[in-house]
Predict the 3D structure of the following.
Amino acid sequence: MKVLMFGWEFPPHIAGGLGTACYGLTQGLAKNQVDVTFVMPKASGEEDQRKIKIVNASDVEWNTYYAQQVQESKELSFIEVNSQLIPYVGLDDYFNVINQIESGLFEKQIPGEKRKYLFSGTYGQNLMEEVAHYAIVAAQIATNEQFDLIHAHDWLTFRAGIAAKKISGKPLVIHVHATEYDRSGERNRNEMVYQMEKEGMEAADAICAVSDLTRNIIIEKYGISPEKVFTLHNAVQQNKKEIVREKNLKGKIVTFLGRVTFQKGPEYFVETAKKVMEYDPDVRFVLAGDGDMMTRIILRVAELGIADRFHFTGFLSGADIDTLFGMSDVYVMPSISEPFGISPLEAMRAHVPVVISKQSGVSEILKYAIKVDFWDIDATADAIYGILHYPALAKIFAEKGKEEVNNLKWEYVAKKLKQIYEKVLANQQFPKS
């Protein structure tokens, strides 16, 4: 079985869990005898291609005929965004929609003319322009590659998947790692992103959701038939060697790792830190990550008078994350809306007890994690204090948690995904899940 897969990022250069999930899933598919050609806007050349093939969309020479084909299939517009944008964060309230003809992208194009588009592969001001170009390049790639099925990850690639389906006639599976309701909430939903998500869901032959939480949103908020929506929980990449546990700071360390955005609940982490320090002033809190709320969080830490025991690391990746977990006594994920959440699995893999919000998809599969409502600062503080001051409790969650995540392997997730592929290819009636 050969799959043409569209993503936006892939290790080693990633911005969040999306790239991590794409890597784990492709590695798992390889172990299940599925050949994957993974397309991304801009490859660095450092990607691991031992088990999959990477296609750099920036290197693809495309025929302007396909621009016309994509344009005819769906009227595309570009958005100029005056702030940084990543796939889990909603657009700014202020955005400027520009018609594609006015933008000049398709002006004076001669049918049959060959062009290339240099993607940045980031989430900056030209994101929507890149999403539109990605769909055009996808149509060209669909004529160049041999494959049985198309798989597209998150809204950034849905139009690419649709374009490839239109050109090839092959079935489309989309993977929903987050929805606009997770990024922006009910009240601040961005209609254009929502419509792009809905468009992809309606065009798909099957939809993979990273949790039951996300599956229910797809069905209830987007009006999609339950028969074609499948829950496919994420897993965690197993360490080749044990993470060394050693500290460079005195005292207990409580860690937050993730984007510093509304969705991740960093403000609740800060308020919880204040409460814990009232009972144990020797505890240190570390916030690892970056995002649009960083300035607000720094100011709040200063206002609460805890800056001497609160540390900001900025964005971390790779070995730096392992080092941080090796120093941590507790990991906290207070997300307001988390479709899944891989970071708690990474912490548990390093023998770190975790406290996670009940409003997360990962809470559906974990037994050895303390689960609290994201807004319940008192309960979160009690959980942290209990782990820090009752060694037997910490030991149970550390040891049992490690055993639990050792059984959450990407090859098992990929085996289930392959079964979904087979049903799609066989055009069977989907059983209700």
The chain has two domains: 2-235+410-426, 253-406. The chain has a mean pLDDT of 86. The domain at 253-406 is CATH 3.40.50.2000 (Rossmann fold). Residues 261 and 293 are 5 Å apart (CA to CA).
